[in-house]
Amino acid sequence: MAPVGTTLDPETVTDKQLVQYEQAIDRGLTEADAMRLTEHEYNGFQANAIIAAALNPAVGEDVLDALATPKYTAAQMTAIAKIAIRGGDFARFLDPQMDARRMEAAYLVVAHGGSDLPVERLSRPQLLTINGILLRGHVPYETVRAIAKPAFTPESMEVIAAAMENACHDPYTGENSITKAQVARIMNPEYRPEQQIALLTAMRGQTPVADLSDADFAGLFPASLSVEQMSACAYAVNRCGYNTPLLMMTMQACADMNAQQLMAVFDATAAEFSDATMAKVSTILMHTPALTSQQMRYLLAEARDGTPFQALESMKDYLLAQAEHEKTQVAETGVKSESRDMASGKEALAEQTGLDSTQKINQNKEME
């Protein structure tokens, strides 16, 4: 700010500065405030923003001194003035890298109770999300503090907040319940929102997944898994009786399999089918990722029907050979007929075991 009593020397300013100075005087600014416009080169929008701020009695000299610099856009100058008028700590938002809308969003978070949050580091969508969570007031502040970080997307923030709100206030119990500790497990910024939802679904109620230790949970459900693979792993624990070591071993052995294939493997080793034959079948499936999930389930159904293990191995080899033939057929015709391969595969199995092919097809008709 120019010293009080200083008068303008037209010879020391540019034509633009002189015009802006005269406009400020015409609009009612004191000469001292109008002199601010001669200290730097401003465009018309910036000059108007400074004049508007100076005309507002709620904007003090310290605020005018802070915002009257060319490093701020007109919108940023206005935002700084608004924050000061509302009683906010405007000095916290004097970052030229924060656009005006982000400045205002950051101020709202601070004004609504988030004064210790790193608002300077958050994007505007993140700030608006956190502000909405604070306004609702249903989520513990320690949770807000934990997710108010640049690594969390706004969508993940919303999923976590909604889950924690349910954990704190949801009247449902039993199969619909979720606890704060379980919600804390999905507070991993590497998780995508759809992964978080899948994991919450797997933990809801008193499920085996919910009973896993934090270390086992983190090991079984890394963010590198797809949503479908996470759901398959949850199925293995909740429905197939898998413990942590068995599931980790299986996932390592089946690293190249999709979720549908994994489900077939998990079913093969489920507790209710864990006899000697089924254990051998699961070994076949685990070590033959070239089989489709439909082919895997066909072998599983045959094993449940009592088909000898040697015949199942022959069926596997036949199906793999058929897969190569299928690739050629698709390349030539563009038509895939896996169901026909299943039927012919049943006939091949019947020949291997000496059974009537029609009988075997009828027995397994429901599988097609």
User: What form results from the Cα inertia axes?
Assistant: elongated
Helix content: 55-70%
User: Which stretches are low in confidence, meaning pLDDT under 50 for 5 or more residues running?
Assistant: 355-368
- Arithmetic mean of pLDDT: 85
Helix-strand topology string: HHHHHHHHHHHHHHHHHHHH
The number of helical segments is 20
The major beta sheet can be summarized as: none
Whole-Å distance between the termini?
85 Å
Task: Quickly give the structural class.
Answer: mainly alpha
Radius of gyration from the CA trace? Answer: 34 Å
Q: Kindly state the number of beta strands.
A: 0
Q: Tell me the strand percentage band.
A: under 5%
Overview of this protein structure:
- The protein is mostly helical.
- Helix content is 61%, strand content 0%.
- The chain contains 20 helices and no strands.
- The longest helix is centred in the C-terminal third of the chain and has 25 residues, at 309-333.
- The chain is elongated and about 105 Å long.
Give descriptors for this structure.
single chain; 368 residues; mainly alpha; disordered C terminus
How are the SSEs placed, and which strands pair?
Blueprint: H1 15-26, H2 31-34, H3 44-55, H4 61-67, H5 74-85, H6 100-111, H7 124-136, H8 141-147, H9 154-169, H10 180-185, H11 193-203, H12 214-220, H13 227-239, H14 244-253, H15 259-268, H16 276-286, H17 293-304, H18 309-333, H19 338-353, H20 357-363
